Amino acid sequence: MRAILFMLSAAVLATLAWGGYWFVGARGLDRTVSGLLDANRHVEAQGHRVRGFPNRFDLTFSEPRIAATGLTWQAPFVQVFALSYRPHHLIVVFANDQLFEIGGEAMTLHSADMRASLVMEPGLSLPLERLVLVIENPEASLNTQTHRADALRLGSNAQSPERHEFAIQIEAAFPDAGMMNALDPGAHWPRRFDAMRIEGVAAFDRPLDRAALEGGLPELVDMVFTGARVIWSEGETVTDIAASGELRADSRGRLNGEVTLDIRNWRALMRRAGEAGLMPAEHAFLIEMALSGMVDPENPDRLEAPITLRDGDILLGPVILGSLPPLF
Fold this sequence. Notes:
The protein is α+β, with helices and mostly antiparallel strands. It has four helices and 22 strands. The chain is elongated.
């Protein structure tokens, strides 16, 4: 009987201690959030509340708004969830409709579901360690254009508190039909892409950590693209273009660097580029001769080609294959 009473007493004390821990933590979180909103002019919210007793901290912001250089974001709400025994791992759930303003242009984003997982390194500063963002059925509307996809996935891992490698992948992408028709009136290129992916490293002027919320938001100081891939299908034919290397954009948005292209269905791609006027007609024969020497002997429809980008021009040796528009 004494053992049973002891166990019951221990259970009651543990429950009271755990409940006390949650209430202390919730009050501390509420005060911290209020202080951050008061001190940071870049982040606003109409209100916030903390729920989740006893095992979670559920933080809900109503009408949040973030304003950074050249970018503004706002939504009806955003929710942040954390287990009370793992406060450094956050789950963020977004509203179905959000509004962005990028460079003075308004863009709306509608999705069936959008949520992120953020893991910080335990400690006082809580630097971001990794991030995963998944958007189901995103639909972005900008001016008269609407771009759709089945899913968008973003992931990042910290190389250091200031540098983060990232990857963005879009699945079953449908660019706006009007835009594609204007850019490609001859319908040389597909209107649906099976997958689009880009990888790189982003560097900021300060760590992405707790202090970033207390002052001005960190600014992007360097961006290196290390890989890209695009895949589309037409019947049984699949075109797959992958790039690996390092590219940087200059102050005018022109890409510079060196990459290796791995292209499947390369002859059809060359024909499309020529018909679309992206490849100088006078160089077509020289380009095809040069590329023929880079064909995989076991798969004549695949080649690997070292490419240089200089001020947006795409060069194979001294021969210009075409040009890319500025990124900004």
